[in-house]
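User: Predict the structure for this protein chain, please.
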Amino acid sequence: MAQGYTRCAALVVNDQSIITADAGVSRAAKNCNINVLDITPGHIGLQGFPYGFIGGAAFKISDDTMAFTGTLDGHPDGECIVGFLAENGLGSVFLTDRPIFDIGGAIALP
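Assistant: Here is the predicted structure, written as structure tokens:
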């Protein structure tokens, strides 16, 4: 169970960087010298629950592009998220015009 939660609670940017709203995941990653962007909890939709998680709402679609289920316009850290990705060589694409929402995760197939 904890492994599944960690996968949802953290968006892996690359081998050395993640994005998370979870203080415990952030602390553990930093202890392993992982670069962490800490974001505000919540602000990600998940039907039937108070909020979803960044790891379930975004995924890489190529080596240099991160896809989001919806826009980051309503997320208080949206600009920071896009900037952090850019600092790590990734662009951002938004798959819908809806506010970002958790789908549990996805992978891009070739």
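The chain has a mean pLDDT of 94.
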